[in-house]
Amino acid sequence: MSETRPAAAEAVEAHVRAFFEGHPVEVVVHDLGPERREVVPDLRVLVIGPGPRGDAWAYVTVGCWAALEKHGQGLEFVMTAPVRDQRFIDLMAMISYYHCGGHQLDLEHSMPIGEPWVPGSTCDHLLISLPYLHGPDLEQCPLPGGDARILWTLPVTAAEIAYRRQYGHEALEQLFDEAQILPTDPFRASVV
After folding, report:
1. How far is residue 130's CA from residue 153's CA, in Å, rounded to a whole number?
2. Which stretch of DSSP H or E encloses residue 15?
3. How far apart are CA 38 and CA 178, in angstroms?
4. Cα torsion for 137, 141, 142, 148, to the nearest 10°?
5. Is the model's pTM score more than 0.90?
6. Fewer CB within 10 A of the terminal residue: the chain, N end or C end?
């Protein structure tokens, strides 16, 4: 596994850079601290600036697959935001630790942030969804010895999570479509 980790990280980074060709990409090594470092030892966050694919910023984890892959399959995560901010890098690190530290997120899961996505936002949870803003070309990431799936971490409200628990993930996504939400708007109104 130790030989696979660096190759996997390089492959994820190359995949993301190819997808976001023409965008500036910054690699941020995020140290989770001595107690948590072992959970995601190679964690990096790719910070992708605006470019040909859109005017939003994207934050992509690198290191989750290597820390938790099973039979060559694993996840990485993408968040889309209106600006470049250390807050979003920290959130991606938090998602990585939460996922690799025993909670094992997957499609249609959610996690509480514990505070607003940004100050003043009513979004205080993250919903794990397909990366609709980017599509399957970003989602499907072939790696040496397996595949990573890059899933979207969409900021949502507690009311939206409660609705999803009662009516299902598809019903909530239908409400998002009907309301035509701007997923990068931290101050968007809740759809429920």
Report:
1. 9
2. helix 4-19
3. 43
4. -150
5. yes
6. N
Smallest Cα–Cα separation from 36: which of 109, 95, 76, 78?
A: 95
Interval 5-35: pLDDT, tens: 788 999 999 999 999 999 999 999 987 887 7
Which pairs from 112-118 meet CB under 8 Å and 24+ separation? Answer: 113/155, 116/186, 117/91, 117/155, 117/186, 118/85, 118/87, 118/186
Alpha helical stretches, state H, 40-190: 64-68, 86-98, 136-139, 158-167, 169-179
Residue of 129, 185, 122, 189 lying closest to 154 (CA atoms): 129
Please choose, from the candidates 83, 45, 78, the residue with its C-alpha nearest in 3D space to the C-alpha of residue 185.
Answer: 83
Model pLDDT for residues 54-108, shown as the tens digit of each residue: 999 999 999 999 999 999 999 999 999 999 999 999 999 999 999 999 999 999 9
